Structures are given as C-alpha cells and as structure tokens.
C-alpha cells in the first residue's frame, strides 16, 4: 500500500521531494509536503509564504542548534520558535481536518445516494441471499470505519510523541549548553585563582628576599654601632679614622663586622666562618693596597708634598710590558661562521597567546621574510635523522664543531659521555653519511629520550644551520627565541663571533704599569638581531584567550589534534607565564640597554592592528639598516721573552709584600688599642683592690661606744678620745701612703715593660719592608728596561754583577744565638744601635746608648728611632738617585718615611696618654681616700664633743665614707610599758599638737561667739588665751601653747586676719589640726566630683551621711608616711576623728539636718604654703577643672618638704565636663566679693575693697569681650593685668608653715599620703 501511495505522490502529484517508503513518516513530519499537496489541490492559499519561511527557518535552526550560547537570548529564540511551530502545526491540523470533513461529507453523500439506489434495487429484488450479503457488506463497512478512526488516533499519538520528544531534546541541549558554560567559567576561575596564587607566592618570595636583605642590613648596622661603641670605650671616644673606614668597607660589602672564627692556624679544609674571615682579610688588603698604590686615603701625601705628587704610572715601562705581553701571550683568532648580509634579522617575543605565531605568519606572507621557530627546527632535525637525510655538502659535523669554537665542546662531550659504547659505534657508522641537520637531530633526540631538555648550545647550532640555508636577499625572524639571557648571549657570540663579557687578558696581567697608548677596544659591531619585538599582554588576557581557544576547540570536534595541544597548553599556561616573568627582566635589559633593539607593541588590541604595527616596525628597520665593517690587525715582533716571567714574579711579590705589610700595620693598630685599654683597666682594678682600714675603724667605734655615758662629758675623757681619733687618722693615712706607693710601683712596672720598644721596633720593620719593596721594584724595573733596550740594539743582555741594595731590619730578639745570623738573607742590626748610613758616615759614628726619662709619664727609650728611620730612608734614596725614573720611587720612599714617623709619634702619644691617665687616677684616688678619712675624723670629733654615741656603723668603702644605717652599733632602748586598756583610748597631747577634744573645745567656743566664721582680733586673742590657760587635767594644752605670750598670740592672730579687725577662726583651727594629709589638686578635684555625684539636686550642700559615704582624700586606712621633721607619732584613730571634726567645722548646724557647703570647705583646703599656688588651687575648685600655673617665679622657700614631693600628675585628673571657663559668680566665690552688706560676719564681708572688686571684675569681663558677663576661658582671664596683680598679692589662701613660728621655732608637719 505504501509503495502505491509513494508512486502516486512521486508520479501523479509530483511533489518537490521524492518520497521513499521507508522515510514516509520523517518526510511528512515537518508538514511541508502535506501543505504542498493541499496547495496543488487548491486547499491552501498561503503555501508560498509558508514555504519561504520554512526554507529560511530550517538552515537557521540548524545553525542555531550548532551555535549554542550561554545567554538568555538563545533560550528566548528557542521558545519563540517552539511557539511558532506549535501555531503552524495547529493551523495545518485545522486545514487537514476541514479537508477531511469535506471529503467525508461528500463521500457520505455519495454513499447515501448509492445506498438508496441499492436499497431500491434490492427492495425490488429482495431475497434472502441478498439480505445476507447486504449485512456482510454493512459489517465490512463498519470495520473499515473503525480502522480509519484507529489510524487517525494513532497518527495523533505519533504527532504528540514527536512534539514531546522534540521539546525534551531542546531542553536537554539547553541544559547541556548551560552546564558546559558553567564548567568553563569555573575552569577559568580556578585558573585565575591559581595564577593569583602564583603571583602571591612570587610577591611573598620577593617580600622574604627584601625582608632578609633589610634584616641583614639592620644586623650589620647594629654590629657597626656596637663595634664603634666598644672602641669608643677602648679609645676614650677617639676611634681612629682608619678603623672606621675599614668597618665601612666591610659594611658596604655585606661582610660581618665581628670576627666569626679564628684563622690562626688555618686548617687544610677551612670552615665556612674561616672562609668568611679570609674574604674579609682579602677585601681589606685590596682596599689598603689600592689606597697605597693610588696614594690616597691614609697614604695621601702631606699638603707640602701634594703639589709635587709624581705620576702614578710609568708610561715607558707600561709600553714595554705591553709589547712583551702581546708577544708572549698572542691573541687567539676568533672563529665564527660567515653569514651573508641579510636585509633584516629579528625576533618576536612575548607570553603565551600573545599572538607571536599569528604575527610571524602575517609577516612571512606579506614581507617575504623567513620565519624560524626553534621547536619546529628541532622537530625537522629529528625527522631528518629518522629519514637518514644524507649530506649535500662536503662539510661534516666535525668541521661544523670546529667552526663553532669552544662553545660546542662542552655539550658534545656531555653527549658522548652519556651514550653507551654501542650508541657511539652506531652513530659513528651513520654520522659521516648524514647531513649536518640530521646529525644535530640525532644529538637532540638523544637528549629528549633521556628526559632532559635540549641544551642551549645545541639549539643555537640548529638555528644557525637553518639561517645558513636562507637566501641572502631574504631576511629572517625567530619566533619565541631567545627565552633566557644565556640563550641571548650564546646566540650573540655564535652569530657575531664577539664575546661581550670577555676581558683583555693582557690588561688583567699588567697591574703595576699600564700602557697609555694601548689599542682601544674595537668599535662595536652590529648585534645579531636588528630588531627585537615584544608583544606586551597582561596575564588576565592570556588566561581569557586560553579559555576562548579551548571553547573554540570544543565546538569543532573534528580538530582533535588542536584540542589536545590546547589542553596541554592549558595545563602549562600558568607555569609558562611564571617562567616568562622570571626571565624577562634580564632579557629586557639585554635588548634595551646592551643591544638597543627592543620595540614594545601593545598586543591587547585587535589582531589586524597588531600585525600592521609589527609590519611597519619591520619595514622601518629595513630602511634604517646600516652596515659597517671593521677590521683591525697589527703585528708586533720581539725576540727577547725571557724577562717577562720574571717580571710577573716581581709584580706578584711586590703586591703580596705590600698587602702583607699593610695587613700587619692594620693588626698593629688593633694591638695598640687593645693593649692601652687593657693596661688602663688593669690599673683601675689594681687601684680598687681591698684594704683593711675598715677593721681599724670598727675597732675604734666599738671602743668609743663602750665608754660609759657619765664619762663622756668629762674633759679628760674627751681629750683622750680626741687623741685616739688622731692616732686612727695617722694610721689610716699611713695605709693610704702605702697604697699610693704600691700603685706607683705598679705604674712604673707597666711603663718599664718592653712592650712599647718592641711595638716601635716591629712597626719600624714593617715600614722598612715597604721601603725594601719599593727599592726592589725600582731595581727590577731598571734591570728589565736595561735588558729590553740592549735586545733592541741587538746586544746580548748581561747579568748585573752588582747585587741589589738590602735594607737591614731591627733585631728585636737580640738574645738569640748569633750563629743564626749567617743563615739569614735579610741583614739585621741591633735595636740599641743607630741605623747604619753610608760608608762615610759609618766611620764617624760610634755606638751610643740613649736613655731618655720623662718625669711626667716615665716613658723611656733606648734608641733614637727617628734617626734610624731617616738613615734607612737615606740609604734607599741613595740607591735610586742615579736613575732617570727615580722621582716616583723617591716620592713613595718619602711618603713611607713620613708615615713611619707619624706612626711612631702616634704610638708614643697613646702610650704617654695611658701613663698620664694612670697617674691622674692614682692621684685622684689618693686624694679621695684622704678626704674620706677627714670626713670620718670630723664625724668622730662631733660625737665626742656632743657626748653622744655613734649608733650606726661608720663605713670606709673604697674612697667613700658613709654611715651604714643597716648596721646598729648600740642596742635599742627598752620600750615603755604598755598602759592599761582603760587609758589606751585616751589621746595624749604631744609637744605642740592639739588633741581632738581640745580642737572641739576651741570650735564650740568660736562657734558660739562668731557663727559666721570671723571674729574680732582682740576677742580671738582673749578666747585662745583663756581656753589654753584654764583647761587642766586630761584636756590640758601642751606646754608650748601655755607658754605663749601676748605678742605670740598677736603674731598668730595676724596670720589668720583678713583685715585689721577680723580673724578667720576656721583657718586657724584648720592649721591647728595639723598634721593631716595635704591634698593635691587631683585629690581635691576627685573629692569635689564625689560630692557632686551624691548632690543630685545640685544645691551645693550634702548631709553627714553623704559626707561619710564619699569621704575625703583620706579615710584613715592608708599607709601614712610622715616626713623626717616630724617627731611625734600620728595615730590612725586621730585621722578618723579628724574626718568627723572637719564636717562639724564647716557644716551649718543651725538647721534640723546639718548641711555642709562642700565647695566652701574645699576652698579652705585649697590653702597652700605658697599663696599664689593656693589661689590656683582655689580656682581649680571653683571651675571644677585643673588650672595650670604659669611657671614664672621660683617656688617659695617656705614650702613644706613633704608638699614638694606631691606629684600632681595631670593625666590623673578626671575627665571634667567643663571646658576651662569661669563665670563672675565663681570668681566672686574665690575672691570674697559675693556677700551682701547686711551679713556682718560673712567671710570677707567687711573688706573695704569689696564693692571695688565687683566693679573691677565686671570691667575686666567687658574688656575681655564678655559684654553680657558670660563665662570666659580661664587661660584668657589669667592673662589680664588686674588678675595677675590680684593673684600675686592675695594672701587669703596661705597655709602657715608654722602656727607657732614666734615661740620656739617648732613646726607642724604634714602627712604625705601615698
């Protein structure tokens, strides 16, 4: 059936697509063929538009399915397309149903007509058989209808299943695309994090490196500082400049300042610390030798000889030595392969994915330039070896290795060493027949098979072999090479044949004389690369390009090889970026500074723009290419070479001798410093040796205290004791004299040591050795030039029969055997004899023993060292006086003589200074000991005259005398018996201190007479006199108070009198209650804030309960420290009673509940022995903040000693809410102008200046800018002249130092509360 239907559709209907029975469902699934069939029968009019949309949609759908994106636009397109397909299918189904219904209706009409005809016919011919057949036909018709309905239902199910599968496929592909996008983003994020981690590790490594450098520098600075500090102690703050320069040299070169290990003796295998010490010694030797050679620094001539400074170089000798060196060490010819002159030579460098390969291919295509890739060349070489590529030229690998010079020998030897015997035989059998490229490929394959990278030398040989095959008219560019600075230098050396790091071997061998006319260095040749292009790109863009390359490869499954390469690169991308960042700084310095060929291109722009930029750089390089050829050759011939090795030995001997002598002089300087410091320290320790004077003093004190008390007042006993003191003094003086004589003998023994003459002799021998070295150099130079010019004349050099002049050294160890003198090559003279001069002077001189004794420091000498040095210098100068080139040698000999004399003078001055210091210390200690004895005698005679025992031990310790209060020489007296318990609570009055009951009696009397606090002066005197004389028994006043006269009472009243009429009895009782703890400003402010905290209403008054709760600055439980002037014990119980007494003294008891004006009370306690300080304390109380006193005048001499010890730390002051301002009301509180006229007994109410103070204060505020009398800053107020005069003249806040100053001078003491 399907075949018939397909044949009808293909032949009769002639659809646009051929229908095959097997593909019938697939062809009609899109609905296109069904629409075409309906259109052919005129049942669908919009088929043309539908066909165009379908044809345009199908390729677009295929393209969209292939190009899956991770954005929302693609999802929206899919949904839109699904909706359009659904709508089109619904329209097609409607049209199909309509057509079927029409066909069905027509068919039913035909069937109905036919049935009617048949019915009529059958009715006409009705029979039983016809009825049976009709029934069968009806049944068959019914079955066909059922089959048709089933087919329609099945097709509908197939359509729904296809639609569902299509939607599921779309959802599945969208989910896969989304998941792949997420995976790619996660991969990019991981790679970026890995890159950031590597960058952080690199930054951490740099930080550790810099930290270690800084730590080492700080360690060096600390060592240098401590070293200087140590030597400042050793040299009395006069460190020699030479030592500072040596330490500076060690510091700048990063060497340790302190000695790490001893190199004496030096073992065969030194330790690392000993190697460091050897490096330090070599460094200082080179520094000293350089200064000596250039005559600078320590060896600079004096100002008189600086103008006649000879030239440092002998040009003639340098020229002769240069000619001999060039003949004895001929330069080796440089061999390098000859390369043609290419139009352009360059390289393209950059990170991974920077576009190197793209730019190289573009340049190769556009500019006709050969692009070389080292990796590709290595692969081609290996392939040539595997294909057995035969040689096309007559050159072989041996010739190639010879032409490439010494650079190939190392890796060829390594290659052969790493091969087995069979490998070498197999290669030798094949190599002679292979090409050069195949031979290099064989070596590369061997390295790669062993798991190692190809050596740089082999890579360069492969690259040079490829360059040789490039036509001369065609330039070349290397891609991604060189990657390291070593490859760049090796390629430069191999291509140009010039080693930029090579030094002139002849110039290195000539050190004493340099030829000024030596040929200059050859002019620089053109570098191997004409241009070096860097494609600059950031690391983040590299990662992004790598991710995009991976994405592109995943969309093209056919390119499996490309995908594998990209995956491999992705694994290595971070390491390759890190490697590039590590090696690029040195390459950048090489190409930009040494080669000057570096050009940077921004590779983050578009690909075409980058390629065009590189093309322009190449074309500009070709245009500006300048070629220059240089050639230089000369020939020098000289037949006499036998003196050159001898001169090399002379140079080495000269330099080693000079360095050794300078090292010895440096060690001598250290030895001198340490020796002088050591003898100083030992002598000081010797002066501090123990003595036995204390035993005699203790014995005398014991005998003195053993005398009975009744005999101490006897005149004869006193005379006897004075005589004993005199005997003790004479005995102690004798001990001091003996100690001085012993110390003097010790000092003389130090001065008579042979150390100083030995050091002088050793130093002179060092300088004589320098003279001998200069003399030998001069004589060897003379011999060399003599032989050279005789050889130039064609004569045979003759041996000089006359020997060289030898300068004798001083024989320091004269006690050795004299049979050893003949074996010595260096002549020695006695250190006690003057140095020998020339032959004429020897006959006229005789042996003399010079002994100079210095009375000041005792320095003795046995020879005239200056004459010895001058005679030795004269001998050396005489030996060089007959030569033309003697100016430089004479100058150096003169300089050595000056330095030798200066060294001896410095050595002598240091020794004399040490001896003078010892003499000064000896005299000072003797005088101090005598002075301590005099002090002891004075104390002893004082106790004899005062008839008192010496309770504590008199101590003579070293040069000090003191009374040791820790050791008692007299036992303590027996304490008084304890009174009965009933009398223990009774307070007993002391010599002048009033008891609490006595103070209460005075307070009650004064309160009854003058409750306002001010009483007439006359009434005050009568009241005090009456109470003192009338109270008897336990309440009896002290005798000091009883003995007060009328004049004493008037003087005491004057201290507390406000004016000529009234006396402030509260100030009197406050002073009479002493001793009590004097508060500081901090304590007053703390107490004020405590009272304000309980005064919730802010009325300024508190009850006794609040007063007890807050307390004062003392509460009776503290540790009270009484000053030394106090002779009475202070009871803690008295302090507790004083706290209660102060409340009753200042509280208003007329009210039902006694209230205390705490500000008024604290103003009383602000009084001070210095009235100005008292005013500042009162201002602090009034303002509630600390008011600083301007330190203009010195403190009052009457300030109590314990008040001076009060430290009022500003940091302890409470954080006040006030801002240091004061109002007129507060000022009136302080300066007593706040009362009214009707308050007759108010504080300061009767002052005549009260109203004037009011006016002055108002005027002062207005002058300071407070027109409405607003509070102003205290600092501004204190600067006003009126305020300054008022503070300086105010006496209202003066606390009398002595309340009974007019009687017997007894002073109350105050308590310092800690």
From TrEMBL:
<dbReference type="Pfam" id="PF22946">
    <property type="entry name" value="SPEF2_D5"/>
</dbReference>
<dbReference type="InterPro" id="IPR054517">
    <property type="entry name" value="SPEF2_D5"/>
</dbReference>
<feature type="domain" description="CPC1/SPEF2">
    <location>
        <begin position="123"/>
        <end position="256"/>
    </location>
</feature>
<dbReference type="Pfam" id="PF06294">
    <property type="entry name" value="CH_2"/>
</dbReference>
<dbReference type="InterPro" id="IPR052634">
    <property type="entry name" value="Sperm_flagellar-bone_growth"/>
</dbReference>
<feature type="compositionally biased region" description="Basic and acidic residues">
    <location>
        <begin position="840"/>
        <end position="855"/>
    </location>
</feature>
<dbReference type="Pfam" id="PF24082">
    <property type="entry name" value="SPEF2_C"/>
</dbReference>
<dbReference type="GO" id="GO:0007288">
    <property type="term" value="P:sperm axoneme assembly"/>
</dbReference>
<feature type="coiled-coil region">
    <location>
        <begin position="90"/>
        <end position="117"/>
    </location>
</feature>
<feature type="region of interest" description="Disordered">
    <location>
        <begin position="812"/>
        <end position="862"/>
    </location>
</feature>
<keyword id="KW-0175">Coiled coil</keyword>
<feature type="domain" description="SPEF2 C-terminal">
    <location>
        <begin position="993"/>
        <end position="1188"/>
    </location>
</feature>
<dbReference type="InterPro" id="IPR010441">
    <property type="entry name" value="CH_2"/>
</dbReference>
<dbReference type="InterPro" id="IPR056199">
    <property type="entry name" value="SPEF2_C"/>
</dbReference>
<dbReference type="GO" id="GO:0005737">
    <property type="term" value="C:cytoplasm"/>
</dbReference>
<feature type="domain" description="CH-like">
    <location>
        <begin position="5"/>
        <end position="54"/>
    </location>
</feature>
<dbReference type="GO" id="GO:0002177">
    <property type="term" value="C:manchette"/>
</dbReference>
<dbReference type="GO" id="GO:0097225">
    <property type="term" value="C:sperm midpiece"/>
</dbReference>
<protein>
    <submittedName>
        <fullName>Sperm flagellar 2</fullName>
    </submittedName>
</protein>
<dbReference type="Pfam" id="PF00406">
    <property type="entry name" value="ADK"/>
</dbReference>
<dbReference type="InterPro" id="IPR027417">
    <property type="entry name" value="P-loop_NTPase"/>
</dbReference>
<feature type="compositionally biased region" description="Basic and acidic residues">
    <location>
        <begin position="814"/>
        <end position="825"/>
    </location>
</feature>
């Amino acid at each position: 059936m399907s075949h018939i239907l397909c044949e009808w559709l293909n032949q009769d209907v002639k659809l646009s697509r051929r229908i095959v029975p097997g593909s019938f469902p697939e062809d009609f699934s899109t609905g296109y063929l069904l629409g075409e069939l309906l259109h052919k029968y005129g049942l669908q009019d919009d088929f043309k538009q539908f066909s165009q949309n379908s044809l345009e949609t199908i390729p677009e759908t295929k393209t969209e399915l292939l190009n899956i994106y991770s954005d929302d636009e693609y999802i929206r397109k899919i949904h839109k397309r699904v909706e359009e397909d659904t709508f089109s299918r619904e329209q097609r189904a409607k049209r199909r149903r309509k057509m079927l219904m029409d066909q069905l209706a027509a068919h039913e009409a035909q069937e109905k007509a036919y049935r009617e005809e048949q019915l009529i016919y059958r009715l006409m011919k009705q029979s039983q058989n016809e009825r049976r057949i009709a029934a069968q036909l009806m049944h068959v018709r019914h079955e066909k209808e059922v089959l048709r309905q089933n087919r329609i239902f099945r097709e509908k199910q197939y359509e729904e299943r296809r639609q569902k599968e299509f939607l599921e496929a779309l959802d599945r592909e969208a989910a896969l695309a989304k998941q792949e996008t997420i995976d790619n983003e996660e991969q990019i994020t991981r790679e970026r994090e890995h890159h950031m981690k590597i960058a952080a590790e690199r930054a951490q490594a740099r930080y550790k490196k810099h930290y270690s450098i800084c730590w080492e520098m700080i360690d060096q600075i600390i060592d240098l500082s401590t070293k200087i500090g140590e030597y400042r102690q050793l040299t009395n703050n006069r460190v020699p400049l030479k030592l500072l320069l040596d330490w500076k040299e060690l510091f700048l070169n990063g060497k340790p300042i302190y000695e790490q290990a001893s190199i004496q003796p030096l073992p065969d295998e030194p330790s690392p610390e000993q190697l460091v010490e050897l490096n330090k010694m070599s460094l200082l030797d080179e520094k000293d030798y350089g200064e000596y050679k250039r005559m600078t620094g320590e060896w600079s001539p004096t100002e008189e000889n600086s103008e006649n400074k000879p030239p440092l170089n002998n040009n003639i000798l340098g020229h002769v030595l240069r000619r001999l060196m060039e003949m004895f060490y001929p330069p080796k010819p440089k061999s390098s392969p000859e390369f043609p002159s290419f139009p352009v030579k360059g390289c393209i460098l950059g990170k991974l994915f920077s576009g190197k390969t793209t730019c190289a291919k573009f340049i190769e295509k556009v500019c006709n330039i050969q692009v070389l890739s080292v990796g590709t060349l290595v692969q081609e070489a290996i392939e040539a070896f595997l294909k057995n590529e035969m040689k096309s030229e007559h050159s072989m690998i041996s010739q190639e290795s010879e032409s490439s010079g010494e650079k190939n020998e190392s890796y060829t030897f390594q290659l052969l060493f790493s091969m087995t015997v069979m490998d070498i035989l197999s290669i030798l059998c094949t190599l002679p027949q292979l090409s050069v490229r195949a031979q290099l490929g064989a070596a590369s394959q061997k390295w790669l098979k062993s798991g190692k990278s190809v050596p740089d030398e082999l890579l360069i040989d492969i690259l040079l072999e490829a360059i040789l095959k490039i036509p001369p008219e065609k330039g070349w560019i290397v891609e991604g090479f060189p990657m390291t600075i070593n490859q760049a230098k090796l390629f430069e050396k191999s291509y140009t044949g010039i080693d930029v790091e090579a030094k002139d071997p002849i110039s290195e061998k000539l050190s004493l004389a340099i030829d000024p006319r030596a040929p200059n260095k050859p002019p620089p040749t053109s570098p191997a690369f004409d241009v070096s292009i860097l494609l600059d790109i950031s690391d983040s863009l590299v990662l992004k390009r790598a991710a995009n390359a991976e994405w592109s490869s995943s969309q093209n499954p056919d390119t499996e090889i490309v995908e594998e390469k990209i995956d491999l690169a992705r694994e290595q991308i971070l390491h390759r970026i890190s490697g590039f960042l590590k090696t690029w700084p040195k390459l950048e310095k090489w190409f930009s500074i040494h080669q000057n060929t570096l050009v940077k291109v921004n590779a983050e722009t578009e690909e075409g723009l980058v390629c065009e930029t590189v093309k322009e750089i190449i074309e500009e390089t070709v245009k500006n290419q300048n070629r220059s050829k240089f050639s230089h050759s000369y020939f020098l011939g000289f037949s006499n070479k036998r003196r050159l090795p001898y001169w090399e030995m002379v140079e080495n001997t000269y330099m080693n001798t000079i360095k050794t002598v300078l090292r010895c002089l440096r060690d001598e300087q250290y030895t001198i410093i340490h020796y002088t410091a050591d003898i100083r320290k030992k002598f000081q320790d010797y002066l501090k040796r123990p003595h036995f004077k204390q035993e005699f003093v203790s014995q005398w004190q014991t005998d003195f205290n053993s005398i009975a008390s009744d005999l101490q007042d006897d005149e004869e006993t006193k005379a006897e004791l004075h005589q004993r003191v005199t005997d003790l003094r004479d005995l102690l003086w004798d001990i001091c004299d003996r100690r001085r004589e012993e110390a003097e003998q010790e000092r003389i023994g130090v001065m008579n040591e042979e150390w100083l003459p030995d050091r002088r002799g050793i130093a002179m021998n060092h300088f004589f050795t320098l003279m001998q070295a200069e003399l030998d150099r001069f004589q060897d130079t003379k011999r060399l030039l003599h032989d050279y010019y005789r050889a130039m004349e064609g004569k045979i050099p003759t041996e000089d029969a006359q020997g060289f002049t030898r300068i004798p050294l001083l024989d320091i160890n004269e006690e050795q055997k004299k049979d050893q003198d003949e074996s010595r090559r260096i002549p020695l003279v006695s250190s006690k004899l003057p140095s020998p001069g020339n032959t004429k002077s020897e006959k006229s001189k005789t042996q003399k023993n010079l002994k100079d004794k210095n009375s000041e420091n005792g320095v003795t000498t046995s020879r005239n060292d200056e004459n010895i040095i001058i005679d030795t210098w004269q001998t050396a100068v005489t030996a060089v006086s007959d030569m033309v080139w003697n100016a430089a040698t004479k100058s150096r000999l003169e300089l050595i003589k000056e330095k030798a004399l200066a060294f001896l003078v410095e050595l002598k001055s240091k020794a004399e200074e040490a001896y003078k210091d010892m003499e000064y210390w000896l005299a000072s200690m003797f005088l101090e000991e005598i002075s301590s004895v005099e002090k002891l005698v004075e104390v002893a005679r004082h106790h004899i005259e005062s008839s008192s025992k010496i309770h504590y031990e008199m101590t003579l310790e070293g040069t000090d005398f003191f009374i040791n209060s820790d050791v008692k020489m007299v036992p303590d007296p027996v304490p008084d018996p304890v009174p009965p318990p009933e009398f223990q609570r009774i307070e007993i009055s002391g010599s002048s201190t009033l008891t609490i009951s006595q103070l209460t009696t005075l307070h009650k009397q004064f309160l009854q007479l003058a409750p306002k606090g001010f009483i007439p002066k006359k009434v005050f005197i009568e009241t005090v006199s009456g109470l003192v004389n009338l109270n008897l028994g336990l309440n009896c006043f002290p005798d000091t108070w009883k003995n007060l006269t009328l004049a004493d009472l008037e003087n005491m009243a004057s201290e507390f009198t406000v004016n000529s009429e009234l006396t402030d009895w509260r100030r009197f009782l406050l002073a009479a209650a002493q001793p009590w703890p004097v508060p500081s400003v901090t304590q007053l402010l703390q107490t004020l804030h405590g009272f304000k905290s309980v005064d919730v209403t802010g009325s300024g008054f508190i009850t006794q309960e609040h007063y007890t709760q807050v307390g004062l600055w003392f509460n009776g439980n503290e540790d009270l420290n009484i000053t030394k002037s106090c002779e009475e014990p202070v009871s803690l119980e008295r302090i507790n009673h004083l706290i209660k007494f102060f409340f009753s003294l200042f509280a208003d008891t007329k009210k039902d509940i006694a209230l205390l004006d705490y500000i008024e009370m604290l103003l009383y306690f602000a009084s001070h022995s210095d009235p100005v300080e008292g005013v500042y304390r009162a201002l602090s109380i009034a303002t509630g903040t600390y008011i600083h006193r301007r330190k203009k005048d010195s403190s009052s001499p009457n300030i109590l000693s314990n008040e001076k010890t009060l430290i009022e730390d500003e940091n302890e002051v409470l954080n006040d809410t006030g801002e240091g301002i004061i109002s007129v009301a507060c000022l009136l509180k302080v300066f007593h102008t706040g009362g009214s006229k009707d308050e007759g007994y108010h504080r300061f109410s009767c002052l005549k200046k009260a109203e004037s103070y009011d006016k002055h204060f108002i005027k002062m505020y207005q002058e300071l800018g407070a027109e409405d009398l607003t509070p102003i800053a205290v600092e501004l107020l204190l600067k006003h002249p009126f305020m300054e005069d008022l503070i300086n003249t105010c006496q209202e806040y003066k606390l009398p130092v002595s309340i009974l100053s007019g009687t017997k001078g007894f002073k109350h003491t105050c308590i310092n509360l800690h």
